[in-house]
From TrEMBL:
InterPro entries: 3-OH-isobutyrate_DH-rel_CS (IPR002204), 6PGDH_NADP-bd (IPR006115), HIBADH-related_NP60_sf (IPR051265), NAD(P)-bd_dom_sf (IPR036291). GO terms for molecular function: NADP binding; oxidoreductase activity, acting on the CH-OH group of donors, NAD or NADP as acceptor. It comes from Kalanchoe fedtschenkoi. GO terms for cellular component: chloroplast. Residues 51-210 form the 6-phosphogluconate dehydrogenase NADP-binding domain. Belongs to the HIBADH-related family. NP60 subfamily. This is 6-phosphogluconate dehydrogenase NADP-binding domain-containing protein. It holds the Pfam family NAD_binding_2.
Amino acid sequence: MAASSSFFAAPIPNAYHSSSALQRPQLCLFSKRFSSVTISASSKGDEVSASIGFLGLGIMGTPMATNLLKAGCDVTVWNRTKSKCDPLISLGAKYKSTPEEVAASCDVTFAMLADPESAFEVAAGPQGAAKGMSAVKGYVDVSTVDAPTSKQIGERIKETGAMFLEAPVSGSKKPAEDGTLIFLTAGDQPLYEKVSPLLDIMGKSRFYLGDVGNGAAMKLVVNMIMGRSHKLSLNLLTAAHRNQD
């Protein structure tokens, strides 16, 4: 099982792929036209600071976007409730009033929405991100959605010529704050390679699982395993309590 941490590494097979973030990047840089990604402490040549959009600043989105800002990334944010953007604006984030405007102004846009309906609306609605997407841009949906919805979002994004990656996360608020999330990604492999340094800022591990829908399916499996584990733990605790009575 080979691991890759750079766009210039050997091609990643369409099979199961994982990597761990062993060293936190300090500043994220994209070359012009989002054709490659490098991580460096300073800009050289024709490299410019990464332009990253982040849609959805809830319990998970806020700490994820905060970690990108702390790493030195150029982040533009949006949330339905504008006041939730204010703490990030105070950290240096830019603000746009619609997902469309965020996507139009950024090289790559991340989305962390509460449910499949919101994820689709923000991506493909009347003022959705797809309206601002174009070739050489990328859209990374880190929301937890079902596979059919993820495929629909991907289709809308790719109709614009942009690339799409689903990347649901395993982890809750604390891992999001600590930058130790696990990303279950699927979709356009070139986009995966390009945003891997950004995933490494927000998480400790990332897995590339092939076609869109595989990441969503794997997240469902993970949730089922965690649910059964929690139920087993409760049953064991209940049994232990009864034995003490």
